[in-house]
Amino acid sequence: MSEIRRILVPVDFSEHSQHALDEAIGLAKRFDAEVHLIHCYQVYPAGAVGFPYDVALPESYERAVREGATARLSDWREKATARGVRVEQHLSVDFPSHGIVQLAEKLPADLIVMGTRGLSGFKHVLLGSVAERTIRHAPCPVLTGKHPKA
């Protein structure tokens, strides 16, 4: 087995993400690894594919989304740090699987730990699962876990 030094954990602030982070913290403690949290969000500009309105979102909206995401991510980082692991946080304005894979390559991550909370029905056909796309394109192993309540 390869050495695990950097574990990347994508979070969307759901219970599924918390479960994945709990797993990652356990692994980080076992291997003395650092955890890297990433949250990906998108702001749709006018003219974007699939954006149905011909309007530009105000800069204040984009700033508010970024600040809100940063604050939530900081809370998660602080809670994980309090559990005795080294944690870094990253924010990406990108489609989640793409942002996750890019950061995994840049770090480089030795392991990605993420939940399997997926979309279902028609949305899944159109968008695909973030976990599924991440698994297909990741430069390292991906450990997925289903939340016990799901």
Topology:
Elements: E1 6-10, H1 15-31, E2 34-41, H2 59-82, E3 86-93, H3 96-106, E4 111-115, H4 121-127, H5 130-137, E5 142-145
Parallel strand pairs: 1-2, 1-4, 2-3, 4-5
Task: Describe the 3D structure.
About 7% of the residues have low confidence. Helix 3 runs parallel beside helix 5. The protein has a single domain, classed as 3-Layer(aba) Sandwich (Rossmann fold), CATH 3.40.50. By secondary structure, the chain is α/β, with parallel strands linked by helices. The longest helix is centred in the middle third of the chain and has 24 residues. The radius of gyration is 16 Å and the shape is globular.
Topology, number of strands:
5
Rg, rounded, reads 16 Å
Tell me the CATH topology.
Answer: Rossmann fold
Low-confidence stretches: 118-127
Which assembly state applies to the chains in this document? single chain
What is the straight-line distance between the termini?
A: 30 Å
Approximately what portion of the residues adopt beta-strand conformation? 15-25%
- State the strand order across the main sheet: 3-2-1-4-5
> Judging from the principal axes of the Cα atoms, what is the shape?
globular
Second rung of CATH, namely the architecture? 3-Layer(aba) Sandwich
Secondary-structure element order, N to C: EHEHEHEHHE
- Give the helix level as a range of percent: 40-55%
Q: Biggest β-sheet: count, sense, barrel?
A: 5 strands, parallel
Quick structural gist:
The protein is α/β, with parallel strands linked by helices. It is built from five helices and five strands.
